[in-house]
Amino acid sequence: MAYEHILYEVSDKIATITLNRPDRMNAWTPIMERDVRHAMEASSADDDVRVIVLTGAGRAFCAGADMDALKGLDPDDVRRASNLPPFDMNRRPDWQTRYGYYPSIRKPVIAMLNGATAGIGLVHALYCDLRFAADNTVFTTAFARRGLIAEHGISWMLPRIVGHANAMDLLLSARRVSSEEAFRIGLVNRLCLPEKLREETYAYARDLADFVSPSAMAVIKRQLYEVPFQTLAEATIEANREMMVALAGSDFREGVASFMEKRPPRFTGR
Ligand SMILES: C/C=C/C(=O)SCCNC(=O)CCNC(=O)[C@H](O)C(C)(C)COP(=O)(O)OP(=O)(O)OC[C@H]1O[C@@H](n2cnc3c(N)ncnc32)[C@H](O)[C@@H]1OP(=O)(O)O
């Protein structure tokens, strides 16, 4: 597919999706939404991809929805867009939402936050599995200052990442949060000097791609997203079942053999 508002590249087992409207601080558009989803699902299905990086071109990650589009928004269009068809993903209903496809991506998704991350841009960063940020980045939920509410499941995602009190603060005030504060409250996993962000993010991604079992990553990711819906007993029973599958898999045999033979593993994801 020819993308209009993103760049897509796969190199050496790492797919990179770059929001690409740098002159508009990568402000979100419906075309960008279509492009990102297509690229995410293509990466998920591509056996040559083990890790996905989502980032922005230029000085911002994403400034949220493009205000020019919001200006003329027709509530009927929103109503139509919210009436989503069911996804064909064999996933639990809780993830049958507009951005619920993210947890179904079978590879780790790292948000490489190169600059301002606002509104729906922050929502997307939260749906990623890990967040690495430049230490001069600014974050804002923005919604309440635009007269909007906590959109697209951010009221569910944000407290699970930063805790209830921090989520309440960030959503009610919609204030600008520095990257230092974002790191302190757990919104981002790692802070980097801006000139080191790319190097550190890709070093982490490369480590996952080269040395971690793809099948183990896919299952661990699913386990963590399922757990809020499970009791301890259900999570344990599920883990026991997955453990039996893992123990019978070739990645397990390779993981043990490579350790014993003091050599890098050659995982196949099976
Ligand atoms: C359905 C709705 C979903 C949503 O996402 S609602 C939320 C929409 N987004 C926002 O409300 C965020 C608005 N923007 C900001 O708060 C700030 O900006 C940032 C934190 C993203 C970055 O701050 P800084 O680095 O200081 O840049 P700057 O001087 O505020 O902006 C630079 C230029 O970019 C334009 N701009 C910023 N955000 C948007 C946007 N979302 N849509 C369109 N234009 C935007 C500005 O107006 C300005 O332009 P000029 O240089 O001509 O004055």
UniProtKB/TrEMBL annotation:
Q: Which CDD domains match?
A: crotonase-like
Alphabetical list of InterPro entries matching this protein = ClpP/crotonase-like_dom_sf, ECH/Chromodomain_protein, Enoyl-CoA_hydra/iso, Enoyl-CoA_hydra_C
Which GO molecular function, any one, fits this protein according to its record? enoyl-CoA hydratase activity
Q: Which UniProt keywords apply?
A: Lyase
> EC annotation?
4.2.1.17
**Pfam families from the entry?**
ECH_1
Q: Is NAD among the key words of this record?
A: no
Q: Which top EC class is given?
A: lyase
Q: Which family does it belong to?
A: Belongs to the enoyl-CoA hydratase/isomerase family.
Protein name stated in the entry: Enoyl-CoA hydratase
